[in-house]
Amino acid sequence: MTTGDKDRTSRLIDLGKSAVSVFASALEEALLASEIDVAVHSLKDLATAPTHGTVLAALPRRGDPRDALCGSTLADLPSRARVGTGSPRRIAQLLALRPDVSTTPIRGNVPPRLRRARELGLNGVILATAGLRRLGLGNEITEALDLDLYPPSPAQGVIAVQVREGDTRLRELVAAVHDETTATAATAERALLAELHGGCSVPVGALATVDGDRLRLIAQVSSLDGTNVVRAQQTGAVFDPADLGKRSASALLDQGAEGILSRIRNTPSNP
Question: Which of 68, 104, 190, 232 is 20 to 30 A from 111 via CA?
């Protein structure tokens, strides 16, 4: 069980820089210790800098990257509705669209979060569409949120297969499930995140899509209360997705994204 699974009380925003690894570090440690031979992650939970001694050997075809609202549609949420989520990005984006609602922190695996939302009498809970569908819980989805208005976490919906760097046999074996289109999009999104020095603890949304030999990247940075949102849309060549990510980050920074992120990083944690 990862640190993020064990600690279900701390907010992601309070974990700071460690938030990028709380869901992955235990698996990586087991991999490097040869306790396991393959680690399977949600790519959005992995730090953008590679872990020494490991390699991402395959990124299978991406699942639906959208966030899902379970329990209500966005339009049908009543005024002062309570929505469950512990993600700073989801909180910020929700408040930007519906400033009249409030959020309740919920952490843990998907079924416990759905159960907890019902126990607390929440009007809804926001989860990843891909995760719900992979667990056979697609029927819980009331609304899949619009990607342009609600861009997901960078690499959301992407599974990463990680092995030890020197394990050539396994690298060749798992390469069979690798999807290059997914890898191209994920590279652009994670390059953007790296340039912004972000992770799970900051409200950055991004989605890259491939159209022939062109790549389009929509990116957004939001203040935690949703009152300040900067957006960028850039296109580039599919053969250089990292450059597109870096250019998109620069466009966001030119619009004031660094000020938003600095205020978030320098805000003291609540007791």
Answer: 190
Rounded CA-CA distance 227/205 in Å is 15
Catalytically active residues are 45
Identify the CA nearest to 88 among candidates 219, 200, 249: 200
- The answer to whether residue 35 is domain-embedded is yes
Query: 160 and 222: one domain?
Result: yes
Q: Domain with 20 in it: what CATH number?
A: 3.30.160.40
For residue 15, pLDDT beyond 70: no
In a domain, 250, yes or no: yes
CA dihedral 173, 128, 150, 189 (to 10 degrees): -20
Q: Report the domain count for the chain.
A: 2
* pLDDT tens-digit series, residues 188-237: 999 999 999 877 678 999 999 999 999 999 999 999 999 999 999 999 99
> For the chain, what is the largest distance between any 2 Cα atoms, rounded to a whole number of angstroms?
56
